Amino acid sequence: MTVISSTKNLEALSFTLIAEFDAGVERVWQVWEDPRQLERWWGPPTWPATFEQFDFQPGGRAGYYMTGPEGEKAGGWWLFTSIQAPSQLEFDDGFADDNGAPVEAMGTTHAVVTLEDLGGRTRMTINSSFESEEQMEQMVEMGMEEGMKEATGQIDAILSEHARA
Fold it and tell me: What pTM was estimated for this model as a whole?
């Protein structure tokens, strides 16, 4: 199992997911910087992501939608705030309407992704910070924790494909 732990901290308004992979830091970084690889795991298996915009630089934006089992679509956006390849990535994260515009009522979360070398393996920590307890509770009720676990669980297959190539 890739996911080591997931922790909700209502007091700190944060959610932290830790996963480990049998690949080096540079290789795991690629699943974040390459939108074609990213869309193969960002979102649960039943809600695959399609990135329509991906400007991977500080101040750059990403726009995507996830497609549900019945063909329904849920939009999202990222604003990259810090990129320190291959060890740390930070971005603001939010929901988007059908035109890709941010849905202000859902608020914004801030994600910090850290990749650490474990002697040829990689530990990935994703820490998401919320604006309020209400926002965090809403995201948890929407299935954020299970969705993140399922999404992250797909990374091993991507890494193993490239290891064999």
Answer: 0.94
Residues 23, 36, 7, 13, CA torsion sign:
positive
Confidence of residue 2 (pLDDT cuts 50, 70, 90): confident
Give ∠ CA 38-125-106 in degrees, rounded to 5. 70
Tokens 């400007």, residue located: 55
The 3-state DSSP class for residue 22 equals: coil
Contacting residues for 159 by C-beta, under 8 A, at least 6 apart: 21, 22, 23, 27, 28, 31
Q: How far apart are CA 162 and CA 75, in angstroms?
A: 28
Q: What is the CA radius of gyration of the chain?
A: 15
Spatial separation of the C-alpha atoms in residues 34 and 43, rounded to whole Å = 15
Phi, psi angle pair for 157, to nearest 5°: -65, -40
Q: pLDDT digit string (tens) for 6-18? A: 999 999 999 999 9
The two three-digit tokens of residue 109, written as one number: 């979360």
